[in-house]
Amino acid sequence: MCCILQAIKEAAYSGMSFYERMDFYKVPALSVCVVENGKIQTECFGYRDREGRIEADDETLFQAASISKVLLAVAVLRLTEAGKINLDEDIRKYTDADFYKTFDCQKYRVTLRHLLSHTAGFNIGGFVGYLPSMEIPSVDQILRGEYPANNLPLFMQNRPATE
Q: For the chain, what are the domain ranges?
């Protein structure tokens, strides 16, 4: 185990151990991923099923939530540094043609910079996610707000870079 993961497990915060904090905040399970010196280390903690005493493992599905925004932003910025993409290009350059047919924004130029700064003008800024028992929609179903998606259809609410 890498030293960062070990430090996480051993750290006491507000007089509570790592596992005591999980209990206090009612966190049944969590997964930690650390990239250290180019090596990826992961570890799962807690139970995916407390009653059945089934521990969380590499097969346990977790909601990525807003951490995915940070990871995507880092990837986009690394691609920008490498000269592979441009933050100020119209995103149509980087998406398939059907993506733009899903909603009416052909008249506006949306860039990666707009998307990363939440100024693209779209009506949806985040998603609530899905329980393990729920059917997972396709990207097209999410964009169109079609079942089994649990969101409204994506549309241009404002002109990019105005709010």
A: 1-62, 63-163
